[in-house]
Predict the 3D structure of the following.
Amino acid sequence: MDQIEKLAADAPLLPAARDVAGPARARRWHIAVFLAPALLVYTALMIVPLADTLRLSLFRSIEHVPAFVGLDNFRVLFTDPRWSEHFWAALRHNFYFFAFHILLQNPVGIALAALLSLPRLRGQAFYRTAFFLPTMLSFVIVGFTWKLILSPLWGVAPTLLGAVGLRGWFHPWLGQEATALTTLALISVWQYVGIPMMLIYAAMLAIPHELIEAAELDGITGFAQFRKIKLPLIWPTIGICSILTFVGNFNAFDLIYTVSGANAGPNFATDILGTFLFRTFFGNQLQLGDPNMGATIATMMFLIILAGVSAYLFGIQARMRRYAL
Amino acid sequence: MGSLSLSAISKSFGVVDVLKGVDLDVAAGEFVVFVGPSGCGKSTLLRVIAGLDEQTSGDLRIDGLLMNSVPPAKRGIAMVFQSYALYPHLTVARNMGLALSQEGIAAADIKRRVETASALLRLDALLDRRPAELSGGQRQRVAIGRAIVRQPSLFLFDEPLSNLDAALRAGTRIEIAKLHRQLGATMVYVTHDQVEAMTLADKIVVLRGGIVEQVGRPLELYARPANLFVAGFIGSPTMNFIGGDSAARLRAATIGVRPEHLLVAPESAGAGAWIGAVSHAERLGADTMLYVDVPEVDVLGAGMLTARILGDIDYAVGDRVGLTPQAGKVYRFDDDGNSIAA
Ligand SMILES: Nc1ncnc2c1ncn2[C@@H]1O[C@H](COP(=O)(O)OP(=O)(O)O)[C@@H](O)[C@H]1O
Ligand SMILES: [Mg+2]
């Protein structure tokens, strides 16, 4: 046995094998050629702005002259009360906003998908479209519509609640500090629940019929069937939905800007990193724009998302099993 | 335990009538095989028995109890699917035990029953693996094991061997036959492979277009097919059908002779009933198939007579041979294709 291995090791590479290896290596440049267009576009649109943002966060404009200050902008952001108060509040709001989505949007999306995939459901196409429709609407329309609906002055909500005798339950939810962020989170969940629903619905349709029938024969029906058979098979999709939610939430800006304005009122109660960044970078009302501090906030958002996505990719996804169906 | 009775079972999908009134009685402990060409409704009938599809009309009884609209899990049956349909996220042991834990059976009992079944199917070493880590034959055995642990009185198999290669198929076929002897449960088995049907069945049900063509023991169907369809479907190679004068002489519209019942002799040895030239020969060692062109004879279908000779006989293409049916082995059919009693 040893001898055979030794013989094999000593044997010269077959000349044919060398011929194949040589030209193949020489021809590798075509890979670069094919990658170049995408790489150029991606670099111009993503990498350069990102790198420039990171660079900008290390400078400060003193008398209109950029000066390198190292990580001092971050120190200011975390500790200087003028900044840190807003920063930590926005971060806290962001986590609240995200938790709300994870705990509400995804479970509701899963539930809707499970209901849609019931074979005996009538009007599937209608429900599917109805639930997905808000996702396709512009955030401007959604934001403005909900603002109108919930308006205490001309909104339809007080009237509708009045019609069922619950007029007293109505509050100007968007206008009260205690409820404004939750209300916005609910609007956002309403708008985007179609995305996890569709992804999970597709994952459920991919489960073979016979597998479900085998479960029926085994007496595993209804909710037990969902929990024991379908759910384990759609975990990877739920993971994808969660990470999409995470990235989307920490980048969120548009809905809050539309509904609450750049000041994220009332009294900054709905301020999240996106609106905080917007005010800082571009300035707002009496506040002057500060690109360096803006870049510092943007860098923080980037790092948070990077940390979250890495944790998912290396911590969760690596351990999650995808089963061949 | 496990007798089955179907009366006037019909099944339509929209305007398509797939089953058109099936009557069938299966005694407890019997091994029944449904055969028929693809699309004849075998799977549909099995699914109706399982409760996965509900019949459009007709009654289904298991052990004498009316089972219409009873959910599948409450029928005392277990089914083995063609695609195995194992739960991909569970180990072999959990796959087999899931139905039992759903029923609320104690963990120790589940373990014992899974172990008994896995010993029977030689799955002991695989209990901790997931389906993706098993070969096709092993998956098939797990699927059977999953059925066994439930101790049903009626097993349903839908083409369980069709995803296996030929060697494995023969082995598993024998295992299923053994299993039937050991368990003594009623088994209903769907296949389009007549070898499986002939070798496994106590009773074969030949289906065509949603109608039962004939029910009988394998050799009964072989010896006394009710009509042209059954005669052509049972037996391999297929029976030769001859019309025209040869049939008229026997007062039949069509006559049939099985390839193994044709005596072949070189033309020089004296005249056969039919004379022709060998157009192709398949030599398998144990036997030889001869395809003989007989221009004067009105052979239905291929236009050639097939003869099967035991042993290796060296006929060359173009050799002229005489073919004679063995005495008493000619099947006669009337204008409607039904058998004429001998
Ligand atoms: N769910 C269904 N909807 C419509 N037609 C079906 C359905 N299931 C089966 N059929 C039709 O019924 C016929 C018999 O099918 P099947 O029982 O699967 O045949 P097989 O004998 O090959 O198992 C086929 O023509 C098939 O197209
Ligand atoms: Mg079938």
